[in-house]
């Protein structure tokens, strides 16, 4: 007489701390737990704190004026307009640019929620209408934010580099750490530079996590979810690089 195999006990609910840790060491556990609860507050808070710490350290070690000057290399049209002013006018205009950018840099975590919401809406539509899944908008928000946790490590490493006194002549918040392919080209090659800037170790890590997450939340194969995530990323990168090159 055969006997049925004993049923495996269900995975116990994860705490927020366990979810955050498992995102790095056992991502499937975290993303399977999103079926139970799609709360994404704590990873967002951690990402926001890491970003603000980076802004504070960069301001102390380099200074906002220097960071803006570094960024003007990526906007030669704006730099040329500034150079046509008198020294006093240039300094006054630069002060205004610094003030605006400072607000944006400190408020970026909150402003980024708009971008996260757009990405989440695109992925929800793609998964539900393209592949017959039933993921919710809040689950997609949670996926995007949990998958973005590697940026915390990137920001911490950038803070370490700044405290060692390196990177001051090239530091910009769009590229705080040499973890991408942008050093292979001159920043004046705007389209190519923007594309290679996006080919970043931490960005790839984030995309892989998102692909795993959507496979966990749906019945879609992981290879397919990876293709969807990387496909949308490629379209956004190429579109963004094109727009950046037009206005550079």
Task: Explain how this protein is built.
This protein is mainly α. The protein has one domain (16-247). Helix content is 71%, strand content 0%. It contains eleven helices and no strands. Helix 1 crosses helix 2 (27-33), helix 3 (41-61) packs antiparallel against helix 6 and helix 10 packs across helix 11 (222-247).
Strand segment count:
0
Can you summarize the main beta sheet? Answer: none
Number of helices: 11
Helix content: over 70%
C-alpha end-to-end distance = 76 Å
Q: In the residues, how many domains can be counted?
A: 1
Percent strand: under 5%
Looking at the structure, what is the overall shape?
globular
Secondary-structure-derived class: mainly alpha
How is the quaternary structure best described? single chain
Mean pLDDT: 90
Radius of gyration based on Cα positions: 21 Å
């Amino acid at each position: 007489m055969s006997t049925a195999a004993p049923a495996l006990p269900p995975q116990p609910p994860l705490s927020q701390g366990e979810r955050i840790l498992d995102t790095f060491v056992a991502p499937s556990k975290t993303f399977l737990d999103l079926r139970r609860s799609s709360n994404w507050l704590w990873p967002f808070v951690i990402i926001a704190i890491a970003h603000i710490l980076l802004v504070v350290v960069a301001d102390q070690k380099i200074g906002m004026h220097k960071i803006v000057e570094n960024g003007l290399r990526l906007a030669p049209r704006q730099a040329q307009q500034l150079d046509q002013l008198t020294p006093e006018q240039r300094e006054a205009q630069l002060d205004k640019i610094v003030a605006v950018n400072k607000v944006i840099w400190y408020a970026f975590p909150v402003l980024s929620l708009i971008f996260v919401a757009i990405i989440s809406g695109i992925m929800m539509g793609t998964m539900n209408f393209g592949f017959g899944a039933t993921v919710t908008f809040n689950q997609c928000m949670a996926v995007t934010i949990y998958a973005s946790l590697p940026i915390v490590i990137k920001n911490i490493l950038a803070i370490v580099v700044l405290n060692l006194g390196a990177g001051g002549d090239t530091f910009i918040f769009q590229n705080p750490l040499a973890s991408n392919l942008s050093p292979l080209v001159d920043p004046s090659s705007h389209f190519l530079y923007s594309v290679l800037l996006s080919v970043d170790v931490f960005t790839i890590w984030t995309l892989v996590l998102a692909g795993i997450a959507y496979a966990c939340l749906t019945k879609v194969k992981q290879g397919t979810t990876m293709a969807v995530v990387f496909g949308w990323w490629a379209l956004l990168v190429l579109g963004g690089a094109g727009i950046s090159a037009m206005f550079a």
